[in-house]
Specification:
about 375 residues, single chain, alpha+beta, 5-stranded antiparallel sheet, 5-stranded mixed sheet
């Protein structure tokens, strides 16, 4: 049984209509006859859900696929179709699905499956091992902050130290992804790693070198073609440069270009309804808009909401009182504007002057109001 549901797939866009095929051959001895196993993965912004019944501990899935894609196998229920009840847990396995014959073997549980015949999953294990210490230190930094008393967490010096350590660890992880890509020029996982780090200025040169070494076939994948755009975003979005133009649609279908705002100061604001920090920052943007909209200041919101989540996007606009122009292509992290601007985290924004040049980046909280006051004068 095969059903299709829309969902953003983040860093893993694939070509539809692929000619290659995947085959999953599962053997989990303790599964019972008649147990239902579900497979869920995404291709070209479509969530594909398949299911099959277990016979003598065995199950099989097959289907068209061109490149590796993040997937899940669930026992008994597909949470993408039937949401789990509060506190409910199910047996599942996360893996890369790729166009080869993959063997899944375990005695008792999906979560304990060992995968063979899959280069992507073998390479993913190698990458995770390379990142293991970095992941450990990242978690340790978060745990330290969470262990502090609430009043201590609010101290500027403490917050800065934690954020500085977080950025240090992120920079280390970017270098690891570049090293992995350089060591695996024939792997689609290298494309995924480079797409992840390409907008980061600190590893730009290394990412360019790794990209140059990739197989031409990998460069010509949808994700691979986007990497040069992301690499270019580093220089194209420097302060003083003319902000790259783009166009997207408002909720009512009107096409809006960034260049439509020439002659005014505009805050280009990247956010999403599902982004907690974005929603927490929205009141500051609302306050800035109310204070300066009469002085030639506008906001253009670009939402990274996912396919099929238009209602959530519109609800967040209403709930947060975002009365300025909002646009989106509803492609999540694959939003075309995010690639042009090298967006890898949100909220993020760019303050653009009437001539279309970038004045400042990533203005949050009081810094946004302070910058607007320095630029436009005190609000009335």
């Amino acid at each position: 049984m095969r059903r299709i549901f829309l969902l953003s797939i983040g860093l893993l866009p694939l070509l539809a209509g692929a000619q290659s095929r995947f085959t999953l051959e599962g053997n989990v001895a303790q599964l019972k006859n008649g147990d239902k196993v579900f497979l869920s993965y995404a291709v070209d912004d479509q969530r594909i859900s398949d299911s099959t019944l277990v016979r003598k501990g065995r199950f099989t899935f097959t289907g068209p696929l061109e490149y590796p894609v993040d997937a899940r196998i669930f026992l008994g229920k597909n949470p993408y179709v039937t949401p789990l009840a509060k506190g409910e847990k199910i047996d599942y396995l996360r893996l890369y699905l790729e166009p080869v014959v993959m063997t899944l073997q375990a005695k008792d549980s999906l979560k304990n499956i060992k995968i063979s015949g899959s280069p992507a999953n073998r390479e993913q294990a190698e990458l995770r091992a390379m990142l293991a210490e970095n992941d450990k230190q990242y978690a340790k930094n978060i745990q330290y902050y969470q262990s502090l008393a609430p009043e201590k967490q609010q101290e500027e010096e403490v917050r800065k130290a934690v954020m500085d350590r977080e950025m240090e660890l992120l920079e280390e992880s970017y270098k690891i992804h570049v090293a992995f890509a350089k060591a695996h020029p024939h792997s689609y996982l290298s494309v995924i790693s480079l797409a992840h780090v390409a907008p980061q200025q600190s590893v730009g040169d290394g990412a360019r070198e790794a990209y140059a070494q990739l197989d031409e076939k990998l460069k010509n994948t949808p994700l691979g073609k986007g990497i040069p755009v992301q690499l270019a975003s580093i220089s194209n979005t420097e302060i003083g440069k003319v902000a790259p133009d783009f166009e997207q649609k408002t909720p009512d279908g009107k096409v809006v270009k960034l260049s439509d705002f020439r002659g005014k100061y505009v805050l280009l604001d990247f956010w999403a309804s599902w982004c907690g920090p974005c929603r927490a920052e929205n009141p500051n943007v609302v306050a800035a808009y109310k204070a300066y909209k009469g002085k030639g200041f506008e906001v253009l919101g670009v939402s990274l909401d996912n396919p099929g989540k238009r209602a959530a996007w519109l609800k967040a606009i209403g709930d947060d009182g975002l009365t300025w122009t909002q646009v989106s292509d509803l492609k999540g992290w694959e939003n075309a504007a995010t690639k042009i601007y090298g967006i890898r985290s949100i909220p993020q924004n760019f303050l653009i002057d009437p001539a279309g040049k970038i004045l400042a980046k990533d203005l949050r909280g009081e810094m946004l109001l302070k910058t607007l006051e320095e630029t436009l004068g005190k609000s009335e």
